[in-house]
Design a protein that fits this description.
By secondary structure, the protein is mainly alpha-helical. The radius of gyration is 17 Å and the shape is elongated.
Length: 86
Amino acid sequence: MANHKSSIKRIRQIESRRLRNRYYAKTARNAVRRLRAMTDKNEAAESYKKVSSLLDRLASNGTISKNKASNLKSKLALHINKLANA
């Protein structure tokens, strides 16, 4: 167990950040999953704006990496474009 006051506080902070990151990462995964399941192009395009914004916010504060966010957004855009062709 930590002996210093600052290290005890750090442990508390890390735990709260971990839980927050876990919640938002799970929320993002569910949003991506819902978007991939969509078959209507207009609905998917509207949802893409929100999901893209969410992924950018998570990348900016370090919950997920910038490359991970970019890869997800790229794959989702391809999915939406395929809906247009179908």
